[in-house]
Amino acid sequence: MKWSVVRPALSIACVLLGLGGCGRHSAPAGGEAVASSNGKVVNLYIWSDYLAADTLSNFEKQTGIKVNVAYYDTNETLETKLLAGSSGFDVVLPTASYFERQIKAGVYRELDKSRLPNLKNMDPQLMELVARHDPGNAHGIIYLWGTNGIGYNEKMVKAALPDAPLDSWKLAFDPAYVSKLAKCGVSVLDSPAEMLRAVYNYLGKDPNSQNADDLVQAEKVLMGIRPYIRNINSSEYIEALANGDLCLSVGYNGDVLQARDRAHEAGKGIEVKYFVPKEGTILWFDMMAVPKDAPHLDAAYAFINYVMDPHVIADISNHKRFANGNAASTPFVDKMVTGDPGIYPTEETRKTLSVQLADSAEQTRAITRVWQRFKTGQ
Questions:
Q1: How far is CA 93 from each of CA 15, 41, 210, 335, rounded to the nearest angstrom?
Q2: Which pLDDT does position 27 carry in this prediction?
Q3: d(CA 77, CA 31)
Q4: CA-to-CA distance for 90 and 24, rounded, in angstroms?
Q5: Do residues 2 and 16 touch, judged by C-beta distance below 8 A?
């Protein structure tokens, strides 16, 4: 997800990072890829604000390959470009559940692993999990991973709800609670499949259910809280939580923790916290993959291998507050990151997590219809 990443969800260097100086890597208007006559370029399509400040500049210095980067904020946007064909992108970062169905659609090139020597650094247990989406890990490499849960402003929520269930999806999906938080601001992700899975967890159902009756029940839950939802967005909630403009957000763990850190830096007494609801949630992976028609294949392999360098991905985790799938990077990731259960869940929490599998085409259409009704409130 981003994740909005938001991930979510994640310029990835500019939207999630919120950093200046990103213009050196900006894409042409419209987020189009750039052609090159000498191959010394890689066209990257990534979640906004999803890199460390110097990830791209260091790659350019080390390799002489220029990075042209374009940003998206939903998996649907990425998928539309990929399925249309001839996107011109060399490396993209789909979330694993979307990645799974895009593989089946023939979107991606099977990786030549002999060209990725840093593949030895990847966590075999995590790679085994994503193999449920990509058998044999044939088409993709884990970039970052995380959970979806609830971020909240502690003072505001406790003022409105002294008995707030600060361990449950009830806080976001039970109108008895959400209605009392409407004045201080409630936000949810603009991510249909992920939000429906959160509701399924709340209802005690299989989060990957394809059952029509389950979807009907989930829609009732969503429509029941719709009058109390201020924002449906997968990125704006980061600053809104940090500034105290929202008191509750269903969001990506790394985004909420960025909001927490920004609030601390501002020194205005705003305390943002994150929890994985006890009913469970999804475990998401954002993958690095190469479209089948990538124009700069050598540069694509060079970039993916560079990101799998333990120091490079550790720096990204330290900046973005998301866990990565690189076992060799752990010694270089700040202990404040690896020791934060909001980023690296405890063993007890991991037992409640589910991998988000791809929906059938019929289920995808049904979820899209439900989500449109939810967004319009009709």
A1: 15, 17, 25, 26
A2: 35
A3: 11
A4: 18
A5: yes
Output the pLDDT for position 33: 55
Secondary structure (DSSP) of 19-76: -S-GGGGBPPTTS-----SSS-EEEEEEETT-S-TTHHHHHHHHH-PEEEEEEESSHH
* Exposed/middle/buried for residue 158 (C-beta within 10 Å: 0-12, 13-18, 19+): middle
Distance CA 45, CA 69 (A): 6
Per-residue pLDDT tens for 176-197? 999 999 999 999 999 999 999 9
Tokens 């791809």 -> residue: 358
Q: Quick one: which of 319, 351, 350 has its CA closest to 337?
A: 319
Distance CA 79, CA 44 (A): 15
Residue type, 141: I
pLDDT value at residue 3: 37
The pTM is what? 0.79
Q: Which domains does the chain have, with CATH numbers?
A: 22-146+283-353 (3.40.190.10), 148-282+356-376 (3.40.190.10)
Contact yes or no for 122/325 (Cβ under 8 A): yes
Nearest to 282 by CA among 108, 129, 125, 55: 129
pLDDT in tens, 327-372: 999 999 999 999 999 999 998 998 899 988 889 999 999 999 999 9
Strands 91-92 and 41-47: parallel
